[in-house]
Please model this.
Amino acid sequence: MPLMRLDGVSKRFGGLEALREVSFALHVGQIMALIGPNGAGKTTLFNCVAGADRPSAGQVFFRGEDVTGRPAHAMCRAGLARTFQHSRLFDDLTVLENVIVGRHCRTYAGLAAAFLRLPRHGREERESREQAMHALTRVGLADRAQDEAGSLPLGERHLLEIARGLATEPVLLLLDEPAAGLNDEETANLGHCVRRIRDDGVTILLVEHDMTFVMDISDQVVVLDYGRKIADGPPLMIQADPEVIRAYLGEDLE
Amino acid sequence: MSTPVGFWNRNWGFITLAVVALAMPLLVADAYLLSILAFMATRFMVVIGLSLLLGQAGQISLGHAAFVAIGAYGSALLVTRLSMNPWLAMVVAAVLAAGVAGVIGIPTLKLKGHYLAMATLGFGEIVFILLVQLKGLTRGTDGITGIPPLTLGSLDFSQPRLYHVLVWLVALIVFRLALNLSESRVGRSLKALRRSELAAESLGVNASWRKLQVFMISAVFASLAGSFDAHYVQFISPDSYGITFSVILVCSVVIGGFRSVWGALWGTLATVILPEVIKRIHEDAVNLVFGILLILIVVLLPVKSGPLARVAHDVRCLFHREERG
Amino acid sequence: MTGQQFLQYIFSGITNGSIYALTALGFTLVYNATGIINFAQGELVMLGGLSAIGLYRAGLPLPLAFVGALIIVLIVAVMFEQLAIRPLMAKGVLAQVIATVGASLALRTAAMMIWGREALPLPPFSGDTPIRVLGASLTPQTLWVVGTTIVIVLALQFFYKRTLTGKAVRACAVNPLAARLMGVSYASVVLLSFAVSGVISAAGGAMVAPISFMSYSSGALLGLKGFAAATLGGLGNPLAAVFGGLTLGILEGLAVGLVSSGYKDAIAFVILLLVLFVRPQGLFGGRVVERE
Model:
């Protein structure tokens, strides 16, 4: 059984069809890349899958359940984490605090515990802190824990978003253009990090423009063009696919 | 964690405030000053709630005077008409305020920014109109007189010094609760959703529910404050609960700063003391100054250095607009 | 209610509704250009009314006082835009709400300091001999209000649909970046919108002063009703704003007849809350209101 399956997912904004009946399956332990020219509908697809947006038609299955149209916080609880194309860090909080927010869906202290500082809240807080530090270690940011998130360079901001996602204990991690704006060294570092996370048992779906990175890292590639899926397969096959080449003709491969 | 030194280091601010606030009756003899201090305590409660809502969660209410009115009129009516125990009446009014906040909040907190502001402004105006028009119940603009002071056993809280201790004790408890909340998992989720609702949601924060919770909490704090005021002054009329009061409350939070609930204290001090000073210069200019302050604070704050820099930085982070994605 | 009374309430509804429509237009113009809800919009209406009254009392003939009021509010609106709105464009909804709320408090208090607390009258523009229409009476001032509103709406339509500048303003509303790329100066469009919205609001305030008096505190209520009207029609659509204003005015007029005049003011807010709860995009609005 695939970890996630999309079945004819479409999304319309007014008259614009951003996604047209996209279907594919994502299996446990894979790194899958979603590519396509600008405006192909990649981020829209992410939003539909992660609960930030509701598909106009079609279904999304996650871990065997129909999760179509579930809100983002429920998807997070179900084991899906994501990063954003333009990073949405909490800039004036510390790096550690950013990641602790990621523990929200795995902790339970409610109003009463918060108001009264019940012992169980204290325990949970300590645990959250440890888990968050662990997530930071996994992406190599442990020594920046006390810095303000806004002070990080771009490469580390991407890593911090990943750490924040990891803190939610996901089984599936969605990365929206994680390599955008990174230099070669940072990109290589990111690649190692992503592979390590996959080796720890987290399945990965990423949107990326950096083709070298995509072809190097992914097991399977899905290509979107004008909201339609035009190809789906291993990197080598995709590189040779005539329709993919046609879609990218005249487009910058960056 | 539990050493006395560690405890002091974490709580010295709160302990100092508590000692100073509770010792005031020993230091102050002037009756006018004492009444201002007691009034400050209830104002503080309202501003604390609004600070959680506006400062921590980033949601603006322009109708908070209405929740204060619900507390005041709820207490007054339940006690004078139904002879209910004042303490029980206070709780009933607070529950009512929370319920009303829920009804207003469920649809509007889903909408962004100015819609909540307008809806709460409209709600505040409706409550005001009802207070004036439901003459059979509220006696309209004449107001309700003869509200009995609070008592507890043999303690009579109409006595200014005793009342001062009571009302500040309650305010301090409310403040402690709010501080605890802001430093908790719940508080962190509020801070997160204020900065980016999308990111907070993606990390498991149910933003609408959280906003609703904090809106209801702030309504309860406001209602409590209204109840205490009503019993202390023993007279209430609609005039005290208009739009201007709501705006002054917002002003208190903005002046105090959004970064921490402590801002509620600074904001309360400023909006209670400043009018006393301005009044001496020009009787009517108080609200003019507050209005201009509101604009100045949000417009001019990018200060490069100096003592304001930190505040400026807070506000900048706070108001940094997210790109629409 | 007799047919005569009914007609009377409708007339008064249309008169007030015209003022709400003008206020709603003011909201809409600013919102379309900037995405900002100007919480001081009602204060501009009040300022228009009180300025006209002040100038008239200072001895100016009525038409000059009217024009003078427009100029005064125009200056205030432009200054407000330059000093407060411009620096806030990039700062997000919360800062904009707070600043415009601050402006409304400041303007209201300033008006109280200048003109006092009393509600002041202005003589009607052309006498007060009522005209009989089907048994109901119609004051000439009502005709002024409705007539001027129609002229303003037509002029705006012409401006937006036929002139180059108007088209530029609309382009900005749809896509500021694209408009900028086409060489339309966004800054001047915002300034223009504030100026026009100020003049329209002032005209509304000056015209209604002879009917319902004007005091420093009238602005808050007028502003909220204007916003209720704009929301009812669908925020961002000028014609819908006018429709919303007239609808609100007529509903209010009928409510006075059916319930009691004390609750007249509550109607707008009940409608506002209902619209926000049930259909936040308004009757004719297509704009998304849930934005981050």
In short: Chain C is about 75% helix and 0% strand.
